[in-house]
Amino acid sequence: MRYLKIGFGIVCIGLAGLTGCARKTAGPAVLKAEDYKHHVTYFNRMEDENKVNAIPNAQSWEWMKANVPLFDCPQDNFREIYYYRWWTYRKHIHNTPQGFVITEFLVDRNYADKYNMISCALGHHIYEGRWLHDQRYLNDNVHVWFRGNEGGRMKKLLNFSSWTADALYNRYKVTQDKAYLLDMLPDLDSEYKAWEKDRRTESGLFWQTDVKDGMEESLSGGRREQNARPTINSYMYGNAKALSAIAALKGDQALSSLYQSKADTLKRLIDNKLWNADSAFFETVKKRGKGPFAGVREAIGFIPWYFDLAEEKHDGAWKQVSDPTGFNAPFGLTTAERRHPEFRTHGCCQCEWDGAVWPFATSQTLTGLANRMNAPKPEVVADTTYFGLLEKYVESQYYRGKPYVGEYLDEKTGSWLKGDQERSRYYNHSTFNDLIITGLVGLRPRADEVIEVNPLLPADKWDWFCLDDVHYHGKRLTILWDRDGSHYKKGKGLQVFVNGKKAGSADTISRILINP
């Protein structure tokens, strides 16, 4: 019998073949969890509970209190959407005979794998879920994907482009669970080789169709066009870098060097063949990379920054996120440049990526932007750029006055284009809270023991914020900004607490490095 019981600081979950209990030995150092319960009370009563998985609405607050970092800020919509996105993520955790899985849609889809699993957003699920206090959900989910089919990969794991190796290595930077990561190395190596066999061209670039990137009906291609796209090539670069690092952790220098060589080769190819100097943008190249550039800037051209692949010479591309004729629309970042003559010409509501705003792409672009803003400062990006775009992302996650996340939305009106379809509700196809934690608050996960914090908050925007009870490298972190010290009564400025004790500070919002 499967059950979930939460109370008195103990989380106990039992299901076929797996039982475990984890005691929450300590809580937040500054914030009080009950101060945020009202958000969940509202979410639970604002609409019907259309499907119940592992954790029903009635137990959602106790689960969140035990599992998610607390966040506080003076801007109500930021705080509300932060808790809303954890509330919706929880809805997608599903008990199966093989362990927990995380779904993309709540309602069943006929093209999903067993247990209604779809691999398209697996990387997003891992990046977001790495901040949960209980990592069994992700551990099980990844194991089912790679070993749930009689010990092998699920049949539809490779139906969509993947950055799973990269995501798991970046999860390791948070959890430091080396044993799990090394155990997954043979599976990730096998997956990489499968992509090489099926999708690598003679030039060394990888090709993909739009639909297998989860981005059908784009301006640069089509559902069946086999093009060299910035997506899959950046993903494979990120995976190669991750596999090199994982192999090094194992002490397998030969495998580490092999994957570093693969990454170096892909970096050169992406720079030489996918960077269009005329448009100053990474673009799709037709006919498996043998044809011309597609001739359109698309959000996928920002993905190289997601994996720290791009260089300073490519920075001009970021001008487009602030340009209203580029990607900057009233309700978010469009998936194609607005100036293009075919922008939003493919009709509506069949999953078009010809310009409408998709949270999947928004979260990739903002992750890439945060990476760039944490590197030596690009002159083309203002200090306010990240916050402004994140604020639009927050504002877009409402429908008829209530918090909502779905598939995609109109860039001018903010209307969710499948908002009245049950399949779209709670669409688990993007990140948001990872952007708050690693971008806005600025906790930058690292493989070493240095704690790095660099908030991307404009200096004059908020007088205070706090992220509390973050589980990181076996420690509990609290990151707090209080301009004059009057709000939290813990002192002035930016402060980082480790296990409740002050470990670093700055008078202004700036980068803090804490050495153990």
Automatic annotation (TrEMBL):
Residues 114-430 form the Mannosylglycerate hydrolase MGH1-like glycoside hydrolase domain. Pfam families: Glyco_hydro_65C (PF03633), MGH1-like_GH (PF22422). GO terms for biological process: carbohydrate metabolic process. Residues 447-502 form the Glycoside hydrolase family 65 C-terminal domain. Coiled coil: none annotated. It comes from the Bacteria. This is Trehalase. It comes from Dyadobacter soli.
